[in-house]
């Protein structure tokens, strides 16, 4: 039984003529904004608005930098400038913690039990027995 293996899965499909869906949205958005500027602004101001908007829409659609679309480059640029950065070599000075040498009066003194020699031997033997049982 033979199966068809899909090829070129990293290439976007051309949906609207020679344009991918993203390219079509960029062009349609740019054209829509240019139309709104033409319709509602005086012609001189409209031209000043339409030129950058149209060039930006064309750049988003067709221009690539190092084989990356302009949209990805701009996204990475904004991410780099507005995210916090971690510099390993620039360590922040740490605040020294003050440790009191003497316990405070209101704290209870903890009782530490003294282990006798025979009790220590019993504990050590118990640990040795447990260790030997794990090896087997």
Automatic annotation (TrEMBL):
It holds the Pfam family PrgI. This is PrgI family protein. The keyword Transmembrane applies. Keywords: Membrane, Transmembrane, Transmembrane helix. It comes from the Bacteria. The chain crosses the membrane at residues 20-38, 43-63. InterPro entries: Uncharacterised_PrgI (IPR024414).
């Amino acid at each position: 039984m033979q199966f068809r293996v899909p090829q070129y899965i990293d290439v976007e499909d051309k949906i609207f003529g020679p344009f991918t869906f993203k390219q079509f949205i960029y062009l349609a958005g740019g054209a829509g904004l240019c139309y709104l500027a033409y319709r509602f602004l005086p012609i001189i101001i409209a031209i000043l608005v339409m030129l950058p908007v149209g060039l930006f829409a064309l750049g988003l659609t067709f221009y690539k930098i190092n084989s990356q679309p302009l949209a990805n480059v701009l996204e990475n640029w904004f991410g780099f400038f507005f995210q916090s950065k971690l510099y390993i070599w620039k360590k922040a000075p740490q605040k020294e913690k003050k440790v009191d040498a003497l316990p405070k009066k209101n704290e209870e003194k903890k009782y530490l039990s003294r282990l006798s020699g025979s009790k220590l031997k019993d504990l050590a033997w118990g640990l040795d027995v447990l260790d030997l049982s794990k090896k087997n």
